[in-house]
Amino acid sequence: RRECPLAQLMDSETDMVRQIRALDSDMQTLVYENYNKFISATAISPSGMDSQCCLEDIPTVQEPHTDSARISATLQDRHERITKLAGVHALLRKLQFLFELPSRLTKCVELGAYGQAVRYQGRAQAVLQQYQHLPSFRAIQDDCQVITARLAQQLRQRFREGGSGAPEQAECVELLLALGEPAEELCEEFLAHARGRLEEELRSLEAELGPSPPAPDVLEFTDHGGSGFVGGLCQVAAAYQELFAAQGPAGAERLAAFARELGSRYFALVERRLAQEQGGGDNSLLVRALDRFHRRLRAPGALLAAVGLAEAATEIVERVARERLGHHLQGLRAAFLGCLTDVRQALAAPRVAGKEGPGLAELLANVASSILSHIKASLAAVHLFTAKEVSFSNKPYFRGEFCSQGVREGLIVGFIRSMCQTAQSFCDSPGEKGGATPPALLLLLSRLCLDYETATISYILTLTDEQFLVQDQFPVTPVSTLCAEARETARRLLTHYVKVQGLVISQMLRKSVETRDWLSTLEPRNVRAVMKRVVEDTTAIDVQVGLLYEEGVRKAQSSDSSKRTFSVYSSSRQQGRYAPSYTPSAPMDTNLLSNIQKLFSERIDVFSPVEFNKVSVLTGIIKISLKTLLECVRLRTFGRVGLQQVQVDCHFLQLYLWRFVADEELVHLLLDEVVASAALRCPDPVPMEPSVVEVICERG
Amino acid sequence: MEDDAPVIYGLEFQIHIIDFDDENNIINKNVLLHQAGEIWHISASPADRGVLATCYNRTSDSKVLTCAAVWRMPKELESGSHESPDDSSSTAQTLELLCHLDNTAHSNMACVVWEPMGDGKKIISLADNHILLWDLQESSSQAVLASSASLGGKGQLKFTSGRWSPHHNCTQVATANDTTLRGWDTRSMSQIYCIENAHGQLVRDLDFNPNKQYYLASCGDDCKVKFWDTRNVTEPVKTLEEHSHWVWNVRYNHSHDQLVLTGSSDSRVILSNMVSISSEPFGHLVDDDDISDQEDHRSEEKSKEPLQDNVIATYEEHEDSVYAVDWSSADPWLFASLSYDGRLVINRVPRALKYHILL
Question: In chain B, N or C: fewer CB atoms in 10 Å?
């Protein structure tokens, strides 16, 4: 006989029994299925046909069946015994395990094989629970509970010590969960622990922020933050979700709250760091740092979609981008003001004899190119934000609003507007008298604005639109509006220039009329020096304006300049006007005459807007000056000689000023008026012979 | 109503008294001879309609002296309704001199101002850099210098214009010299406020708001009209820049102070409606007792309309510089302007605006 272990025997026995049963049932099925055949067979047998063969078959079928029944019957007894024995054996083994459990657990705990211990405990738990009414089991259970408690405590201890990294902690938590520790409490502890570690990271980040120590650059900072804090947060979140998946929405909510709180603290730190960066000029580093920052937060963002870390990060990036734009706008403004200061200095610099300082045109070119290069630099700097490789560049903000509202409107249009405003502010300066702004600067700015209107604005905007493919529906300021603003600014500046320069000359003329005693003056021998000065200054202004503005059109009047007009001016018209009229008997005639004459001459708008050309500017200045002369003359009383002096002066002015103005008739009119007024203010009006006037003027 | 027009015709100086008959639209002119000299400034006594003061130039050999004197018109002209023939020269009458504002110490009288609403006894004259307060005694036949003050400082300071404030019991006078406005207390003859650089250039004229005690308007060669609150002298309350040349005159309407009249050497007269800084910023205030509720409601509605300062009209009848504008003292809707060429234009406030203000 073969030797077999009991268990194998038992197995083969049960196997056999099973087979027997299977056979049995097969047989029955066969019988049932062939029942009809049997019936028909019995029906046929009386007919005596094949009955013999059929009946002979039946016992052969029944034979194995009875054999098997017999065998199983003999084996039955044994089988039952064996089964019983095996059952007892298993039970004994279980009992043995139970009785040994406390010591085993103790051993496991001592050895630190917590996993094993937890598995044992898990196996025994149910049985002990079931049989706890038996005293012996009760004792074991109590022992086990004590040990398990110790185990749990040790696990917690280990968990709390936290010297080990997050994975081991996760293991601890897993074991504790298996021990049936309350999950909620564990969540709390787990998170509290994670918080401790993450706060450590935050503290170290904060230390880097510190007020005085040389902070690492922003890229390094975000790197630290990214690997330290964000990485940690990721681990925690992943582990938590794995461990406490069973906790359902409440657990997820807890994690979200945790992440939200720490995340916001992290963001606050990052923002503080970024704020330190605001003053800096290096955009590329900042953009790279922002890119890292943003990229890093995508992982936890995906893990914790509900917390909105990624969104918050994007928001921060957007904010920084906005602030950068503001910073660049400030930078551009400062650059513009710097340019103006340079121009002022250049204008104020004492001229070295023989060597002309930089001309106005040159200064203008310098200013224009300097501003343009600043604008381009700013554009290039902010363009980094939209570079393809930057992780946030495909966010809707950076694709749309940043380009159109931020860069185009905020930066470029904003700068051009502020430039116009700055320029206009020179027109409103309260110290009109002192003329704090050098006139040349006004002129230069006016030309600059005009250049912007004609070309630069559209160039800059085209450049911007090309670099930043503006593709959203926000309304943008059209080029034409900006151009109109620039033109208006240019016009105001030029008008103000005319006023200022006109005022300078006016003051000279005014002083010359007001301070002189016109009643007791000497016979005119010369043109007064002040008139020469006026002509000199006007010539200087003419040169100055000519540097920046085109000539402009003047009324074609005559090539033969002074002679002809002089004769009209001083002999026929003037004499006809006042010589016969100073008898008391005929006052009406004078008025009538002068009124009729005025009916045919157009009203002169003294301070009128100017056009962008030299002639118009000069016309404006001369108009203002001569009108002042006129009004001043009307406030004085002239002796005969005084009148003659005025005559000489006016003729001199007429000789030299006509060439500057658009319509020389205007100069004639005003000067006529001056002489006529002086004559009216003279008790003894005897005009000088035109020929004498002419001689004096030519001499002087 | 009368309007005095200083016009220089050769060597004969006249004062024209012009009667304007509103109902019949007839103008009458009476001419008074002012033999003392060429008149530069003229002002009528507030108490006695027959008395007026002038500043005039007296030319002697090679010197021009500006003096001031108080005169009385011939009795028959005072009535105003006196019918005079058209030919002015034949009926030219002479002013009766009451007294000189003695000018031995001070020459160059720039202007003379009467105490407003007073008894016609007090008069102030501005001479160079002095303010002289005169007491007229014995029915104006004698002028006694009561007190004076003078402007200290560098350079040749010279008053150009002055006004006597109708507020504060007539104790304040404002003067202009160069670009500066100053306020003086007539009791102590001391300066009470000073607006430096009130205008970019010379200040030509100023006027007090008749209804708001701290408000003052000024105008000058910078083509601007500025409105000041004398309690805050750092910047003007409002600035108008409508004229294209020096503004020579600014005048508040005597009863509706939102109406401001300015005359300029750009030959224009501009009537502005300065509602926002007037004493009636919300339109005419109507007493509750006088009107029914319905009307009250209507006026309330009207007051809600945003009232804006604007130019009502620009009058371009003058061909030459306008040197004087003033409101009629009898009819608040009537004003006159005078230009260099001797043209006097009398205008009315547009009817629509008049009703808008009244209703």
Answer: C
